[in-house]
Amino acid sequence: MAELPDKTTAFIDWYLEVVEAADLTDKRYGVKGMNIWTPYGFVARRNLDRVIVQEIEATGSKPVEFPALIAANEFAKEKEHIKGFDAEVFWVTKGGLSELDVPLVLRPTSETAMYPVFALWVRSHRDLPLNVYQIVNVFRYETKTTRPFLRVREIHFFEEHTCQAGEPEATERVRSNLGAFARMAAAYALPYLALRRPDWDKFPGAHYSVAFDIPVGGARTLQIGSVHHYRQNFSEPYGIRYETADGRQELVHQTTFGLSERLLGAIVAVHGDSKGVVFPPSIAPYEAVIVPIPESGGGEGPLAAARALYERLHEAGRRVFLDDGEERPGAKYYHWEVRGVPLRLEVGRREVASRRATAVDRLGQKSAVAFDSAPQDVTSRLEAFDRALQERAREAFRAAFAVARSLDELPKSSKVRLVSWCGREECGHRVEAALDGSLLGEPEEGLPFEVESPGPCIACGETRDARWALAGRPL
Amino acid sequence: MAELPDKTTAFIDWYLEVVEAADLTDKRYGVKGMNIWTPYGFVARRNLDRVIVQEIEATGSKPVEFPALIAANEFAKEKEHIKGFDAEVFWVTKGGLSELDVPLVLRPTSETAMYPVFALWVRSHRDLPLNVYQIVNVFRYETKTTRPFLRVREIHFFEEHTCQAGEPEATERVRSNLGAFARMAAAYALPYLALRRPDWDKFPGAHYSVAFDIPVGGARTLQIGSVHHYRQNFSEPYGIRYETADGRQELVHQTTFGLSERLLGAIVAVHGDSKGVVFPPSIAPYEAVIVPIPESGGGEGPLAAARALYERLHEAGRRVFLDDGEERPGAKYYHWEVRGVPLRLEVGRREVASRRATAVDRLGQKSAVAFDSAPQDVTSRLEAFDRALQERAREAFRAAFAVARSLDELPKSSKVRLVSWCGREECGHRVEAALDGSLLGEPEEGLPFEVESPGPCIACGETRDARWALAGRPL
Asked: Residue B353: which of B365, B371, B367 has the closest Cα?
């Protein structure tokens, strides 16, 4: 039961210890950068995926699954894309005891798997839009330091790929994706910024990229997802054409939307504290844990009442765990706090007498849950907990940004920087050099907090075209 | 709208056409033996997996996910196992632009991925039983002819792996798995035989294997799953030991339980007919489709009523599709029959007048669904359809077997053979040679139909130890 490192001053150490202490992953697998999804981590991931599936299917996207292996010749068709991924793919070169005629790539993302087939699926304007998604694992031969959920070599991945009749329709799909992500992030209680990446930092092959960033560990940022507008950059090499209503052949415009297991890392990073993980109810493997407190006289009262409470909540469809093990109550409290269970229900002699469990939520708020109205009481306790968690995350989010007014100031603050920028690449690179970080881009849909108007460009002093941009050091 | 090949006389041709006509798969992917899960096929698979997850978790098994890549040295630890898989794995030899120090195998199954870690997870008798499962894709460099769902190179796969304190506990886990599979198969309306494979045909590394077989296409059989007792065959090389209550170190006994996308192929093969696929309601992507029949006068009545019916069923949680496209009703009937939708609801002028949709189930049974009690009426129609489908499948199953009384008779019948067998390997091989097929093994839990007592061994004539065994030609 060693204490965790301090989250504020030693964020990464804290993170690495907490994901293991909370039993979300096991890093002792024999291949670098590939970890094991333990039962507890797997169920958190399953809950997280459920939100993604619900929100994306509500926008009319349909699930598919394409093969994990891509023939080398298809992989190489779009030049920028292959340049971006060439150095970080795993190659399958042997099948059984013999060399393969055509080497295969383990997908790092699925454009090159899907688009030759999209060229067969899309024939007429009646086939559009084509909005499909898959949730699969992708593989990247990562050479940087790997970290559970944040940077791994086998990545649990959501990817939507769409074909649209024209550029406006594709732009509209980007908007729709931004809206869907806003609803997902609300379920995860994750405030974020949607930033249009500067041209030199967009996805390989994209026309433009909007990324979702959150501040973590002080001055660092974490990209937790992205939406891309491809225009016809891929439809041209892959020949994805359709016949318009008036008989012309046109190339489709395409978009993609990507999320990954990093979202789980982000939930740990944003909500976790000195006691461990804190799960929003939507994601928590168990929404509540029941701890019976045995009577010193050895009576069965609390245990029997705890069991009855468990049955009632379980039947009502709540994800609840009855911890009737032999450890002492204090050890159980600690066990489930580290694991981030939103609500603990204690049942001792006093609770049996009053027919009300003592409820303590993961932020320390105490209340009571009546045995006779347990499902409703638990629902309202979880809703109150979720509101408090959302508010705490929003406050920390607002406090994580600061305006920087000169290049000298950039490296000094422990916050993510708002800078005035004229929009020129040269000035962007000067910001990056001064910070030893990245110009993350401009807010795609405004800033979610109040700030004055931008001043002159932090690099060249030009006031014309000045706009706010974010600068930070990606984790 | 070409007619399908005859299922009885040209089973494989029928199967290959029907899986594509029903839009369950797209075979036009650029890598041999790897197909695309289309939206319709994917949702059928998702429904199928839901049954598996529900039944296996009800037995206390927990979900995990281990990496897809296995280091060559771990893969080679159990001698029989590696011999069984050596010639059919894909090898990853390059990462980025350089050769890997240790080549990696794309998992063909996960014993060798999991068991080094089980050795870390299992320490004490308190850690037992360890019952975990995963649903992942596995990869086999299949050299035989590939066929959608039945034999592919990337396989959607369920695998449970367990560690038990002793042999009796492992045997009990095998029993529990057989029970869980019985419940899954009931949801799929699939009658099957559980057969203990002869020793020469067990899973590489197993102590014994019980396989689930179904008759398909006359004299052929299809293995749709298996449960294995490993004893200590893997725990010894991987060092999976625990401390007993009295302080001794013991190797665990292990079991596994495997299922795959073949189940979807089996559902197609067993229930399909001359019109296409027939889905049991549990698996059907849509349980019902609503077809409005426009009035010749051009009135909106049927369409509006169909929409209201859709809303009512959708809100009640039914998986329902409103086909309000421009094709003629007959074309729509054909479209959804091929795809196996259990129930069609027709809404024309007469139906609007009577406030009752005409219901036609996929076996041709006609009835009515009242607008005002549509959710309940649809539920009862689906239940009746499921019962009829179960009964039809059971009858076909019973009719698929015939006793063979001499080796000469074996190749002649178009049924799966029941043979009297003395249990000796030599006689088993004589049966296999005569049939040009396999001795599938002995019923693990009795035969599900009436049959006389076994006579003398079909090969040697010995009556001592004679028992029924099944012989067939696996597809």
From this structure: B371
pLDDT (tens digit per residue) in A277-291 = 999 999 999 999 999
Distance separating alpha carbons of residues A447 and A196, to the nearest angstrom: 12
Say whether A43 and B63 touch across the interface (CB within 8 A). yes
**Domain C-terminal end among B381, B414, B435:** B381
Question: Does residue A103 sit within a domain?
Answer: yes
Whether residue A247 lies inside any domain: the answer is: yes
Domain count, chain B: 3
In a domain, B282, yes or no: no
Same domain, A316 and A232: no
Those of residues 115-154 in A touching chain B at CB distance below 8 A are 116-117, 120, 132, 137, 139, 141, 143, 154
Domain limits at A372?
288-382
pLDDT at B218: 80
Q: Are residues A89 and A35 in the same domain?
A: yes
Q: Which of A328, A320, A325, A335 is CA-nearest to residue A289?
A: A320
The answer to whether A86 faces chain B, any CB pair under 8 Å, is: yes
Please answer whether residues A213 and A195 qualify as being in contact, where contact means their C-beta atoms are separated by less than 8 angstroms: yes
CB-nearest partner of A117 from B26, B69, B113: B26
Chain A nearest-CA residue for B36: A66
Instruction: Tell me the nearest-neighbour CA distance from B181 into chain A, angstroms.
Output: 22
d(CA A14, CA A277): 11
B337-379 confidence digits (pLDDT tens): 999 999 999 999 999 999 999 999 999 999 999 999 999 999 9
| A242 and A146 together in one domain | yes
Identity at B420, one-letter amino acid code: S
Contacts of B277 (CB under 8 A, 6+ apart): B18, B19, B22, B24, B268, B271, B338, B339, B340
- The verdict on B200 and B332 lying in the same domain is no
Cα–Cα nearest to A132, from B43, B336, B262: B43
